[in-house]
Specification:
The complex is a heterodimer of chains A (about 475) and B (about 250). Chain A has about 475 residues and is α/β, with parallel strands linked by helices. Chain A has helices at about 15-20, 45-55, 90-105, 130-145, 165-175, 190-195, 200-215, 235-245, 275-295, 310-315, 355-365, 380-395, 400-405, 410-415, 415-425, 445-450, and strands at about 1-5, 15, 40, 65-70, 70-75, 85, 115-125, 145-150, 155-160, 180-185, 220-225, 250-255, 295-300, 305, 320-325, 325-330, 335-340, 345, 350-355, 370-375, 395-400, 430, 435-440. In chain A, about 35% of the residues lie in helices and about 20% in strands. In chain A, strands 4, 7, 8, 9, 10, 11, 12, 13, 14 and 17 form a ten-stranded mixed sheet that branches. A four-stranded antiparallel sheet of chain A has the order 3-20-19-18. Chain A has a three-stranded antiparallel sheet with strand order 21-23-22. In chain B, helix 5 crosses helix 8 (about 235-250).
């Protein structure tokens, strides 16, 4: 069954259930290439300092994106696979902030002051575990150690749990400088909420969305998850209607990845309560249909946006990029991450901070960079990362441009990838007219699968690396 | 150790086809020597050694200020920066040398190198040793003339520093000169790789690094050029020529 919206017949993407079923296989999300499991320990402080220094030496050094990870949550949601620490002790947030400020003071001087911060994102855990005053202190500290861009299109965003934030808090967050929010919802169905331990009222959520609008957040995103325990088409349908009615600028619809061996919290979810694979697919189809009917555009990789949203506009105009924080309108920046498990992307390197709190704390206390692992991209990595970016953002690869830029013969260099693409071509996911590799409308729903054809690391997985399924 | 980037620039590759008796086809010295009737075997008899040296890695010094002068060298691959340290120990950049250009010329008339030469990336040289400089000057007048020609070109490169020019004018002159030098070597005049760090460019032009970037960013916003990491593409050469005109006086 294909979903083609009567409202928007020219939509450039389609969700074909049969295809999705066939291609429901594990794969990375490609927020980075190579992906994090390939980062190596032993790549650390000395390397990062050298890379930061080199990045300052470009004729026009890249602008900066900053990411801060706040790992604390007051309450455990059972579906969660993120790096988080459950606690109700707000004092821990204060202690964590003290160390963050220490980390900022150590790391910021490595970057020249004329490199402006055009993007700032707080994620977690629950960033609003820290009260607005503390968040203000954090942003203030970053603002003193870095040069914040004053351009109107700077992107300062924060993930929020609507259960633990008030409209008055939103006003404070806006005053601090945030201009974009992302709210967790997942599902409003009370049965589902009980099963995932996330009881969140519709009214309180809508009040927060409303407050975001009133206090100048230029874009609000809502996260939903399909495939959760006890989820039904009726219940999820009501959630979709409620959320769509509130007209958030963006929506992210994630498929629940049940991997209880990797994520302890998920062991609280009964296998029997989970929808079947067909049921899960039906939930996705429902979401896609409702969103399409409501006029939302599909950006890629589970993300939808209203046509007037800057992401949708950027995609139409070819100015869409993708980094660890997801899709963005900002051209290539260097990303600096702070806090436990945070990832940085500077020059041709990736580094990740310690994932466990004690190791991060000790490094920061000793005045060291709290880097756990990382890697330096080689030429082949840079080339493949470029292709995967093009696929994720534009849904196509400009073969001639790649050949000119990198001095290769595409057909020779990527003979393996082209062979891997052939079954996808037969299935109508991708077309290869001369000079192009292009996802079809059906293929745009399965960009991950196409990208995997260019991933050199999939052939040789490190021990214990497990990816969630592509659907 | 970082690999050289894969992004390519077209150009004449530096040849490696010489041997004990014949110069490489792209040799910077062959023309001067051959026109004076000196082939390599004669040079050997005069104890003048022409040999390929390197690779020098980024940061390696080719010679240091005060070292006894014994050779000049043509850059075969990579970029070399020359500099001195001023009285307070601060580095002052004197110039940059691209493939095909000759370093050490300013030492010919002294007994010691008057500056430091360092590799900015992986550098290959063709070294032209001069153990008996004084004797040689008498015996190879034509060659000396050729070398002084190269030296005066060298001095010409430094014209960007003289005079009361704006940051825009200096930077435009710098880029235009680089562009011409690349073009002379068979590389693209409009697409180049800036191997030198922005602090080195700034130091050379007597500007602050932030100023260099600010000017480049403005030129980029105005569509005059496009910069991506170390790669620069000149989109409106006529605009740069106009800006550089007063500095370069041509």
């Amino acid at each position: 069954m294909q979903t083609i919206s009567p409202v928007n017949p020219t939509r450039t993407w389609r969700f074909d259930a049969e295809l999705l079923r066939r291609y429901d296989r594990p794969g990375p999300r490609y927020t980075s290439y190579p992906t994090a499991p390939h980062f190596a320990e032993g790549f650390g402080e000395t390397d990062f300092r050298d890379i930061a220094r080199r990045s300052n030496q470009d004729p026009i050094p890249r602008q900066l994106s900053l990411y801060v990870h706040i790992p604390y949550c007051q309450s455990p949601c059972f579906y969660c696979g993120c790096n988080r620490i459950i606690t109700r002790d707000v004092a821990r947030g204060r202690i964590y902030l003290d160390r963050l400020e220490r980390e900022i003071a150590t790391v910021a001087p490595l970057f020249d002051r004329d490199r402006e911060v055009v993007q700032l994102h707080l994620g977690g855990g629950t960033p609003n575990f820290l009260a607005p005053e503390l968040l203000g202190e954090l942003v203030g500290s970053l603002g003193r150690h870095f040069s914040f861009s004053r351009a109107a299109d700077r992107d300062f965003s924060i993930e929020l749990d609507p259960r633990f934030v008030t409209p008055a808090d939103i006003e404070l967050l806006s005053a601090i400088g945030f201009n974009r929010t992302s709210l967790g919802v997942q599902d409003f169905d009370p049965e589902v909420q009980k099963a995932i331990n996330r009881e969140q009222g519709v009214d309180e959520t809508l009040a927060i969305i409303d407050a975001c609008r009133r206090f100048g957040m230029r874009s609000v995103n809502v996260d939903l998850i399909y495939g959760l325990p006890k989820q039904t088409l009726e219940g999820f349908g009501r959630t979709l209607d409620t959320v769509i009615d509130a007209r958030p600028d963006r929506l992210a619809i994630y498929g629940y990845a049940h991997m209880p061996r990797l994520f302890k919290a998920q062991r609280q979810i009964e296998d029997a309560d989970l929808p079947s694979p067909e049921g899960k697919l039906a939930l996705l189809e429902l979401a896609v249909q409702r969103l399409g009917d409501a006029g939302y555009e599909y950006i890629g990789m589970d993300h939808f946006a209203l046509p007037g949203d800057e992401l949708a506009r950027a995609q139409r105009e070819g100015g869409l990029h993708r980094n660890f924080m997801g899709y963005t309108t900002h051209a290539q920046t260097d990303l600096v991450g702070f806090g436990v498990s945070a990832i940085s992307h500077v020059g041709d390197s990736f580094t990740q901070n310690h994932r466990d709190l004690p190791s991060w704390e000790i490094a920061v206390d000793e005045g060291r960079l709290p880097i756990w692992r990382g890697l330096m991209l080689g030429n082949d990595d840079v080339l493949r990362a470029d292709l995967i970016q093009q696929l994720m953002c534009q849904g196509e690869i400009d073969v001639r441009k790649v050949e000119r830029t990198y001095g290769i013969s595409f057909g020779e260099y990527f003979s393996d990838s082209l062979a891997a693409l052939r079954p996808l071509q037969d299935d109508g996911l991708v077309q290869c007219p001369p000079g192009w590799i292009r996802a079809t409308p059906r293929g745009r729903a399965l960009l991950r699968i196409i990208a995997m054809c260019f991933d050199r690391y999939l052939a040789a997985q490190p021990e214990g690396v497990r990816y969630s399924k592509a659907i | 150790m970082q690999e050289q980037p894969l992004k390519v620039l077209t150009g004449t590759p530096i040849a490696d086809d010489g041997d004990d008796f014949t110069f490489c086809s792209t040799c910077a010295f062959s023309q001067a020597c051959l026109s004076e009737g000196y082939d390599k075997s004669v040079l050997r008899d005069l104890h003048v050694l022409v040999e390929h040296v390197g690779p020098f890695r980024e940061g390696d010094h080719i010679f240091r200020e005060g070292d006894p002068f014994n050779a000049i060298a043509a850059v075969r691959a990579g970029t070399v920066k020359t500099y001195v340290n001023d009285a307070s120990g601060r580095e002052q950049v004197l110039g940059f040398f691209l493939p095909g250009e000759v370093i050490g010329l300013n030492a010919i008339h002294t007994a010691r190198y008057p500056c430091n030469a360092v590799a900015l990336d992986t550098v290959m040289l063709c070294r032209f040793s001069f153990p008996m400089m004084a004797t040689l000057a008498g015996r190879m007048p034509g060659l000396q003339r050729h070398l002084f020609n190269l030296l005066s070109q060298d001095i010409g490169k430094a014209s960007v520093l003289a005079g009361n020019f704006t940051a825009d004018e200096r930077l435009a002159a710098f880029i235009v000169m680089l562009s011409r030098r690349f073009a002379e070597r068979g590389f693209s005049a409009h697409r180049m790789r800036l191997t030198m760090a922005r602090t080195d460019i700034a130091n050379y032009l007597r500007l602050a690094p932030e100023t260099v970037s600010r000017v480049l960013r403005r030129l980029q916003d105005e569509g005059v050029l496009k910069v991506d990491r170390r790669d620069m593409e000149i989109l409106k050469p006529e605009v740069l020529d106009e800006l550089a005109h007063h500095v370069l006086r041509d």
